[in-house]
Write a structure and sequence with these properties.
The protein has a single domain (3-198), classed as Rossmann fold (3-Layer(aba) Sandwich). It contains 6 helices and 9 strands, in the order ααββαβαβαββαβββ. The protein has helices at residues 3-15, 21-29, 61-71, 88-95, 107-119, 155-159; strands spanning 50-53, 56-58, 78-82, 99-104, 125-128, 141-146, 161-172, 177-186, 189-198. The strands form 2 sheets. It has a 7-stranded mixed beta sheet with strand order 5-4-3-6-7-8-9. Strands 1-2 form a two-stranded antiparallel ribbon. A hairpin with a 4-residue loop joins β7 and β8 (177-186). The longest helix has 13 residues, at 3-15. Bound molecules: S-adenosyl-L-homocysteine.
Length: 212
């Protein structure tokens, strides 16, 4: 289903500057309509963010593609995602042959993402909890991708990046953030590239925004 729409979305992403073939292949494969609520399905392949309940959103495809391209994960690498949400970003990484670990703080969203992963037979390790603390048990990670915006880079996450690994994380105020692409050169030494003007839902947790 939606074969044609998916092809069109891949063309849209290319026209907006996404070049990595492995990223584009993943977008051609993963059925985004399975990750959005029924009433939104007709918009599943439009390049926009859509509501998924609990005041959260499935990120805009271009944003997912941009962050994934920045992370540039290789098959069999271990990637930690903070903010499972719908599960779509995790499924994109899974389609690239990555070992995905993902954390979501909303129990209902966690549960529905796990249900979709099970139905699709995707081997993704998903946990309910505060992702700003990371997932120490499986650290270090070749890559960490944070899909919600925080006031600063959580120290726990910084520690859980492998040397030679990367983290992609939006940092800023609640309305607008700069995407930081952080490469870990050695313990305590990081290279940071900043890309302005992204808008994510807030990262809420011990090392994020405080819950109201
Ligand atoms: N990657 C998701 C995007 C969801 S929006 C997708 O592809 O659909 C970001 C998600 O981050 C929301 O579901 C929100 O509840 C979650 N979130 C916010 N703060 C978090 C935290 N500290 N730990 C884990 N998840 C968090």
């Amino acid at each position: 289903m939606y074969e044609r729409e998916r092809k069109d979305l891949v063309e849209t992403l290319k026209s907006k500057g996404i070049k990595n073939e492995r990223v584009l292949d993943a977008f051609a494969k993963v059925q985004r309509h399975l990750f959005v609520p029924d009433i939104m399905k007709q918009h599943a392949y439009t390049d926009v963010a859509l509501p998924i309940g609990m005041g959260q959103t499935i990120s805009q495809p271009y944003t997912v593609a941009y962050m994934t391209e920045a992370l540039d994960p290789r098959p069999n690498q271990k990637i930690l995602e903070i903010g499972t949400g719908s599960g779509y970003q995790a499924a994109i990484l899974n389609a690239m042959g990555v070992r995905v670990f993902t954390i979501e703080r909303h129990h209902d969203l966690h549960k529905s993402a796990v249900k979709i992963f099970d139905e699709m037979n995707l081997k993704i390790a998903a946990r309910w909890g505060d992702g700003t603390l990371g997932w120490q048990e499986f650290a270090p990670y070749d890559g960490i991708i944070v899909t919600a915006g925080g006031p600063s880079v959580p120290e726990n996450l910084r520690k859980q990046i492998a040397v030679g690994g990367k983290m992609v994380i939006p940092v800023g105020d609640k309305k607008i953030q700069t995407l930081q692409i952080i490469s870990k050169i050695s313990d305590g030494q990081f290279n940071i590239k900043e890309v302005p003007y992204f808008a994510f839902v807030p990262l809420i947790g011990k090392e994020g925004w405080k819950e109201k």
